[in-house]
Structure formats: structure tokens, C-alpha cells
Amino acid sequence: MNDTCGTLTVSVSACDDYIDISKEGQQNTENFFNSQQDFEDALIGTYDLLGTNYLIHILGEIASDNALCGGERPTDVLEWQQIDDMTHNADNVALRNVWKWMYAGIGRANYIVEFQNQVDFDRKPELLAENLFLRSFYYFQLVKFFGDVPLVVDGRISVEGAQSIDRTPKADVYKKIEQDLITATNSLPWQQAQPGRATKGAAWALLGKVYLYQNKYNEAADAFDKVIKSNQYRLVEDFGTIFLNDNENNEESVFEIQYSIGVEGGNYEQLEYSEGNVAAGFMSPRFTGEKVNWGPYDDGNTFSTPVPELVDLYDVADTRLNATFFNIETYAAQMPGLTFDKRNEYTGYYNYKYMVYKEANLPDPRVTHGNNYRAIRYSDVLLMAAEANLQATSPKGDPQALLDEVRDRAFAEDTSYRVPATLENILQERRLELAGEGHRFFDQVRTNKTSTIPGFDVNKHKLFPIPRIEIELAGNTWSQNPGYSN
């Protein structure tokens, strides 16, 4: 991730379980954490695990009612197909990767926490605050997926300790996330010179989201109010430009995961090592024939195909329609000589927000792309604030004004398209505004709006299963999530 890492690139090192164990005699206080640069390098390693968020992005769409899994055939990336069909179990490889990669990030953050008193330097409070933000981000993903998860915060853990640790109730995990984010806000700046670094606004926004997921509406409204009243962010005037490669880290970006090209390429066996955005390549259409006929695009693997029912929700006057969905048949009609492969679960639509353009990707452009992932946008904050304030007993803002700001931008400031700020309308606006960005499934689960997800069992699928191998590594002492077998 070039913007965050600078000249130093630290790749993901996939571990066999959620514990980050160092070999004896390596990476200890005798040869590391003896200077500010040691801490800075370790922090870069903690940031680097953000790159694996591509998987959460994809799963957040295909598990929802927004998209089908797609791909070349019904068995292509079977673990994703199973999640799309709600037939996944405790052996699902994708879910294991989410668990493994998020805990790898937590392990790197905890390594810094373990030796935080080793050396003093002027930037240390800010560095530790960035580290707490990152650990909170990783833990939040885990709680969204799995509910109760082991909470490890003071440092790394030994093999023996791993066999005795238990799952922590998610309420306690949330409490720790809240505490850490509040602590982080005290030392983080509103602006960072280096794009991709955690800021005070990112911490308040993530904290508000954590509160919202727990139905703590007063607290959420207060956190979002701090972001809004900071005047650090504003909506990009033209929605169609938000996701362009040359408009990264724009004024609407509250927190953005940095990706790069030509630094470290991806391959299908070890996607987690890519410094590029793997999701974009997987979600783009598959062009065929002469490459000169493709226009500015490269081709992809046709996963996460948006369903027509979603496309039909948009008013024709909504500027987000053509900026969200790539209609390949319309495009092909405009490009003489262009051909394409329809493939599995073809709908005619692809995710236009994360299309693969012709870039110097290495070694395979289909699995690495330079477009950053907009993890938290200001419009997301405004809509979460509208939702929280609508249900808060002590609101901090006007839900109608917050909703109107997002909707007015979508309709080029034509206020005749405004709708009342009801909960149903706010949640619908979230779907329209954030389609293709990986938030939909988790929004549906937290608001109990899952009836439109094919195959969804409310007694089972609100959580994903704990990976079987993790239960075994913990000595088979953990209970599985309801509805799944070990």
C-alpha cells in the first residue's frame, strides 16, 4: 500500500491460526523497538493487513440481496458461492481467511502495545493512537462476522495461552473497541500529511458506527456530530467522480484503504500478498477478443454481479445509477468489435465503482488494481447520523437535513426528489448510496432486514460460523455459533 507505507512495503504473512508467534530469539526487545523507526516500521506492518479487506468487501455484497456470486461457473471460488447461497459451514475457507487475517492485524498491533514503553519519542502518542485505531478496525470486522471472539489486547500470546483462551462476549469486545477509539481520538490529528493514516475524524466515525451496531443511538449521534461539525469533510459535488483513480483521498474520504500497482503483484495462490485491490479485478467483467477494442478497461473475473432488482430501485434522474452500475450490453453497443463472456449468474451489470482500468499491474491485472477502497465516506457518516438522530432520545442533528444533503447531491441539487426522513427511507438511501461498497449485508443483519436475502435463516445466518480449525486449535473448548456444527 504505497501511500501508507511510503518506501517500505510490508507484505501480509498469513499465520496458521489467530496467534502471532515469533521464533525464539527473533523480534524481541533485544533487537527491536529500540528506536522510533522500529515503531514506525511495525506500524506499517499493522496498516498492511488492511489490504486483505478486499475479501470483506466482496462478501458484504454477495451475502446480501445486492449481488449474486457470479464467477466463471457455479463452483468457481466455491467458498464464496456457498456464502451467496447461505450453505456455508465451519470449513469455509473464506471465513477462515477473514478470521486469520484480522487476527494477524491484531497480533501486529499487540506487538506494538506489548513494547510500547520501550522507547520514548515525540510522535509516540500519535503512533500509539493510530495503532489502537487499526486494532479496533480489525476487531470490529471480527465481531460483525462472528459475534463473540477472543479478546487479546496486552500483547502476543504463547502457544500454551492459545489453548486456554476463551471467546469473549461481543459486548465486552465492543466495550474495549469503544475505549480504545476514545483514547485514540485524544492524540490523533484531524489531518495527516500522508494519505491513509488514521485521523481523529476516522476514529470518531468508526466509534459512531460501533455504537450504531449496538443501538446506542445517543452515543452514535454524538460521535457522528463531532465528525460533521469538524468541517473537515464535504460531499464531492459529482458522484460519478468519487471512485476514479485520480480522485482518491478526496474531501469525502473519512478513511480510505490505500492500494497500489507495480509494487507487489498478486497471484491466485496468495492473494493476501498483493499490494493492489484484489476485489476490483474479481468484480470486473470478462472482455474477450482484441484488447484494443476494450476501451480504457482491463478485464476481470465477473464476481459479485448486481441484481436487476437493485438497479431498478434507482430513479432515472438519480446520478448514482450510471456511476454505480456498469451495463456491459450498453457499453458493448457503443464499442465496435467488443465482445465479452457472460459467464455464471450473468445479469448484465457489474460494479462500476471498482472497475479494472488498464494499468501496469503485476503479474496479473485480473487480481490486482490500484483503486483505493473508500472504507468510510462522508455520505456514509451523514446517513448513519440521520439514522442515529432519528432514534436518539437526545439527538444532535436533524435527520431530515442529514438525509437531504445526501439525496440532493444524488439528484444534482433538485430538491423535488426529497423524501421524509423515516427509518425505512434512510436505510433505503444507504442501499442506494453505498451499493457495491460491501456494507449491505451487515446493514441488513443489524437492522433485522434480512427477509430479501435468499436462503437466509434468522436463527442461523446473523453470524458466520467460527472456523472449525480455530476451535480445534483452542482445544475444542469453544462452542460453535447457533445453527452450525463443529
TrEMBL record:
Similarity section: Belongs to the SusD family.
Entry superkingdom: Bacteria
CDD domains: SusD
Positions annotated as TPR repeat: 201-234
Keywords: Cell outer membrane, Membrane, Signal, TPR repeat
Location (main, coarse): membrane
InterPro entries: SusD-like_N, SusD_RagB_dom, TPR-like_helical_dom_sf, TPR_rpt
Keyword Signal: yes
Compartments, record wording: Cell outer membrane
Domain RagB/SusD residue range list: 252-448
Name of the protein described by the UniProt record: RagB/SusD family nutrient uptake outer membrane protein
Residue ranges constituting the SusD-like N-terminal domain according to the UniProt record: 17-212
Pfam family, one: SusD_RagB
